[in-house]
Amino acid sequence: MQARHREYWGWWPLLPLYPYGRRRTLRRELLAGQLWAFEQLQGVFAVAVPIRMLAVKLRQGLLLYAPVAPTPECLELIRELEANHGPVVTIVHPTASGLEHKVAVPAMARAFPGAELWVAPGQWSFPLRLPLSWLGFPASRTRVLFEQGLPHSDQLDWLPLGPVPLGPGPFFEASLFHRATGSLLVTDGLIAVSDRRPELLELDPRPLLFHGRESGAEAMDDCEERRVKGWRRLVLFSCYLRPRAVEQVFNRFPFRWRPGWQRDFEAISRQGALQVAPILEELVFPRHRYLMADWLRRCAQLPVQQVIPAHFEAPVAANSATLLALAEAWQRGDEPLGGENLSLLRQLNTRLEQLGLVPMGES
C-alpha cells in the first residue's frame, strides 16, 4: 500500500488542521507489553506538534485513550497490538472541549465495533448543540464517564478535572491512572517541553525548517541549527499563540523574531519540567482555580511514577512530590512562567469575559 494512501485521513475538512489529509502515525512502546503511544502531527500554519493516543494493556484486552485519526496506517498498527495483546475493548474520549481530540472519535469507534465508547461528561458542539449520535457517536455503546460508571475500575483510577463553564460548553477532562505501570494519562491539563524534538518532526522536518528561518526570503536548507531554532519557535507559538518576540507575522515575510526569544523558550521548557499548559492557565482556569489544585492533590495521592500527556513530551517522570509542588505553586498563585508571552491569552480572556461568553475569573 502506498504511503500516501496508508496515511490518508478523509475527515480532515471537519477540522482543517495541518497536515490536513495526510497523517503519518508513529507507534512507540512506552512500557514493554503494557503501554504504547500512537503519535501524529497536528497544527495550524505549519505550527505542528504531536498529538498522542495511548493504548493500555488490560486483562480483557486493549483500551484506547484520546483517539487520533484512524488512518489505514494507524489501524494497521493497532491490529498488530491486538494480535499479541487481545482486542480493543474500550475507547475513551477524555475531554469535553478539545475538538482536536473529538473529531477522530466516531471514526475510531466505527473501526472497532466491539468496543465500548466512554466519553467525558458535558459534551457539546458548536455552533449548534447536537446529540452525540448526530455527530457519529454510536448511541448503543456510548457511555458517559462518572455519570454512568467507570470502566475497568479494578485496574484503573479515574480523576475528573472540571467542569469549568466556558461559553458554548464546559471544560472537562478525565484523567486515568493505570495501576500496573504507575502511569497517569492526561489530555490537555499538563505538558512538558524540552529540546528533545519529536521523532515525527525529525522524519518530516519541514515545519522545523520553515520556522527556523530568519525571514521568508531565506531558503529552507536543512541543518541542525535550523532544526533547533524551528522546534523552539514551534513550542513558543503553540503554547502562547503569539509569542512576545514575534515582531511580524504574515506581512512581507511570514515571521520576524526579536532578540530574546531563546530565553523565553528556556523559561517555559525548564529542561522538560511538568507544568500546567499556559493556554489552560490563562483561558480556562482564571475561573475556578481551586479545581486545578484539587485535581493535582488527588493525583498526588496515587503512586504515580510517570505522567503521559497527549501533547509534547511523554512520558514525563513524576511522583507525588512533583504533583504536590505543582498544586502548592498553583494555590499560591505564583507568577506564570510566560511573562509577557501571555499578553495575547490574557487579552482573549478579558474579551471573552466582557462579551459574557465566560464567567468572570474567580480565586
Short summary of the structure?
This protein is an alpha/beta fold and 363 residues long. Helix 2 links the parallel strand 4 (62-65) and strand 5. The mean pLDDT is 87.
Strand order of the largest sheet: 1-2-3-4-5-6-7
Query: How many structural units, i.e. domains?
Result: 2
**How helix-rich are the residues, as a percent range?**
25-40%
| Biggest β-sheet strands, sense, barrel | 7 strands, mixed
Order of helices and strands: HEEEEHEHHEEEEEEHHHEEHEHHEEHH
Looking at the overall shape, the CATH architecture of the largest domain is 4-Layer Sandwich
Q: Please identify which CATH superfamily of the largest domain we are dealing with.
A: Ribonuclease Z/Hydroxyacylglutathione hydrolase-like
* Beta-strand share of residues: 15-25%
Low-pLDDT runs? none
Termini separation: 55 Å
Structural class: alpha/beta
> What is the multimeric organization of the chains shown?
single chain
**Could you give the count of β-strands?**
16
Number of helices: 12
Radius of gyration: 20 Å
Properties at a glance:
single chain, about 375 residues, alpha/beta, Metallo-beta-lactamase, Chain A, 2 domains, seven-stranded mixed β-sheet, five-stranded mixed β-sheet, about 25% strand
Q: How would you sum up this structure, described in words?
A:
The protein contains twelve helices and 16 strands. By secondary structure, it is of the alpha/beta class. The N and C termini lie far apart (55 Å). The chain has a seven-stranded mixed beta sheet, with helices on both faces. A five-stranded mixed beta sheet has the order 8-9-10-15-16, with helices on one face. The chain has a two-stranded antiparallel sheet with strand order 11-14. It has two domains: 3-186 and 305-313, Ribonuclease Z/Hydroxyacylglutathione hydrolase-like (Metallo-beta-lactamase, Chain A), CATH 3.60.15; 199-269, no CATH class.
